[in-house]
Amino acid sequence: MEQKRKIGGERMNEDMISELPEALLLHILSSVPTKDVIATSVLSKRWRSLWKMVPNLKLYFNMEYYSSEDVYRLLNLHKAPVLESLHLSIEDKSARLDIGILIGIAFSRHVRELVLDHYREDETTVRFPSVLCSYNNTLEVLKLTHDFLLDFPSRVCFDALRELHLYHVQFKDEASVCNLLSGCPRLQDLVVERFSNFDVETYTIAVPSLQRLTIEEEYNISDVDGGGYVINAPSLKCLNIKGLCFNDVCLIENAPELVEAKIEDVSDVDNENILASLTSAKRLSFYFPLEIKYPIGTIFYQLVSLELHIQGTNGWNLFSFMLDSSPKLQSIKLDSQN
């Protein structure tokens, strides 16, 4: 914004935005698309290097925005002492070869939130550089989307990681799943979206610090029946499971602190174990479209709110069972489907 004012009988141009404190300018620029932030460098001498201190960057690898060489150069010019967040969207095939270098630069900048999106049409995976994961004490949020291959032959060390999102990534083997999750001692939020049994048969989630867990599977023509999940999370508070249509097992071994759970469309899973593992919850939402096995003698001592999606006789039998097993129940929501 520019306005004119009269000083000493002369009108002078005043760039009011440029007179704001640098900390406020950086805060404003943090919410502006990175390509526009960089474009501000031509405004004036003061703005020439200001973009280099912006703590949040979102960069696209494609012909319209940046090549991998451009991103490499921009990250090297960046001077903020801490990179609060870096979001890299990869469409350019050549960028796949440089992803390890770029992640290494981000880690050297003490990045706190790293978001990597890999869009491809040729079904080529990009290997996440496990060598960079041997020790990191600054990364707090990691989000990986589409066709990253996670191969961790040894345990990683993400000491500060609180939040992990894995959207349709591929693990090399079951050991890689365990080596990643066991190396996150402060992990509180885990989101897993995948195709059933696409990479590993048994997906073991053993995280003592975990408080919120979401598992969602999508249908895929190549899905093979069998396998499933083993969950050992003694601090878990919230659980959301959806779409386990090709799994035999969802074994919740240890979740005594569970407060809220939503279970939807787990038609082939041994759901007796699921019900029996939810007795500490205060709020439950169920959608079991097929036959349900009832854990005899189970009492939901803490349950106060129940939402049930009723389908056929089995659904009404579940409703009757829950009423008999929930002495503190106060609120019921029914969605009947015939």
From TrEMBL:
SUPFAM superfamilies cross-referenced by the UniProt entry: F-box domain (SSF81383), L domain-like (SSF52058)
Annotated ranges, domain F-box: 14-63
Matching SMART domains: FBOX (SM00256)
A Pfam match: LRR_At5g56370
Domain of life according to the entry: Eukaryota
Xref: PANTHER family: EMB|CAB62440.1-RELATED, F-BOX/RNI SUPERFAMILY PROTEIN-RELATED
Name of the protein in its database record: FBD-associated F-box protein At3g49020-like isoform X3
Species the sequence originates in: Raphanus sativus (Radish)
High-level lineage: Eukaryota, Viridiplantae, Streptophyta, Embryophyta, Tracheophyta
